[in-house]
């Protein structure tokens, strides 16, 4: 791939992993995310006892912690780039690597890699922790057959959640680079991700459906494993919408970075 | 005593100068009012009175039990985000630039600085909140009327002179004060704008987001103790099947208790920590 300089990628990786606060943040976020998923699975209950009677999506229930994880990913991504821009360290970076596009690509690669790996670990952990809790809450055969991590729909939901978080990391990185300050980017993105779902029951469908279909939360559709005819968007198209946001914002960010003084 | 008050007055004046002289405050205040009114108008334009058919059970959705006051104040779900940003920045922008060292050199009694920030941020949140909620209410009612929310359909006109309506509109402003103080405290504890804004928004929204899929008994508990779902009970003027099971003032009290608890923790951190 053109534009990827491994030395620059290694430099960005060193910046990312050498901040002691980052490791603490990752552990805290993984714990909170898995914790919320486990809470949702532990307190749920069902009265369904016959085959075909259960219509809850147990896979979605076990991945619910993503509501917290996604905000942490955005805050982390925005914070990473905004810190370098507001402290002026970016001038050192661009002196060392005058090809600014290479820096942007290297940042996107390292952060996406880190988020993809930790997002995958978090999703797998959430799923595995949740299954016995769901079983204890009454989600048992015959109404709810046992679901295994290796089933195609589960694989799609678990890896798709990690890909959704990765898209948000790229989106956060781009937003931070464009705005150059953490507060406005995080406020806008967190509001965009949280408010539509919280408003869900309150908003009329005429407003709620477009929000679920065209804003970055569309990607959460990738977690669905039970067919839902009334869903505003399909699993893969939903994830695609989130990635369109991420890539469009990245294009703008690269355009801005190459033209702006630092 | 008068010395203490005079001292606090000067610190208040200093905090007011700091807050009004940065552009982010004016932007966030304008965004809070604009977004609240805009979303309120959109909600009012989209709701209708349909659903009152033959199979209509009392209390079921869409059966003539819409809360016209609550609907017109729904914009606060978005507008509060700007209030959170304003209040967090009132705490963190000094830490970002290190000017907090200067502040504490000038006013070594740190709790006095915290008290002054509480006063200034709380007052701004109340004024902005009242402007936003009153404007939303006044803009929303004619739109609702045009959508069929008329006396003939069982919806008498709501007026700011009525107790429940006045309580809902003023209570929305008080709710935003609680949210602002919660955000101020979180900013003082975390000292980083991004982390603090993210943490406050998660605390406000995630309980409501997950409550939708919880079993009824757990959902009732979560919604009665979470700051946003409990606090916004103050907007309710009609009891519905999906109402949060907490009274309007009690719910506002829950949001206030969250703010008080976080501010206490913040005061402890500010007092006992290096800057």
- The chain-level structural class of chain B is mainly alpha
Low-confidence residue ranges of chain B: none
Terminal CA distance of chain B reads 28 Å
**Strand segment tally of chain A:** 0
| Average of per-residue pLDDT values of chain B | 89
Explained architecture:
The complex is a heterodimer of chains A (262) and B (275). Helices cover 72% and strands 0% of the residues of chain A. In chain A, helix 4 packs antiparallel against helix 6, helix 4 (66-86) packs antiparallel against helix 8 (182-199) and helix 7 runs parallel beside helix 10 (235-259). The mean pLDDT of chain A is 89. The two termini of chain A are 27 Å apart. The longest helix of chain A has 37 residues, at 100-136. Chain A is built from ten helices and no strands. In chain A, 45% of the residues are buried. Chain A is mainly α and 262 residues long. Chain A is elongated. Chain A has one domain (6-259). By secondary structure, chain B is mostly helical. Chain B has one domain. In chain B, 73% of the residues lie in helices and 0% in strands. Chain B contains eleven helices and no strands. Chain B has helices at residues 2-20, 23-46, 68-72, 76-97, 100-106, 110-146, 163-190, 193-211, 216-225, 227-231, 248-272. The longest helix of chain B is centred in the middle third of the chain and has 37 residues, at 110-146. The radius of gyration of chain B is 20 Å and the shape is elongated. The A-B interface holds A 36, 40, 43-45, 61, 64, 67-68, 71-72, 74-75, 78-79, 82, 86, 182-184, 186-187, 190-191, 194-195, 197-204, 206-207 and B 24, 42-43, 46-47, 74, 77-78, 81-82, 84-85, 88-89, 92, 96, 192-195, 197-198, 201-202, 204-206, 208-210, 212-215, 218, 228, 242.
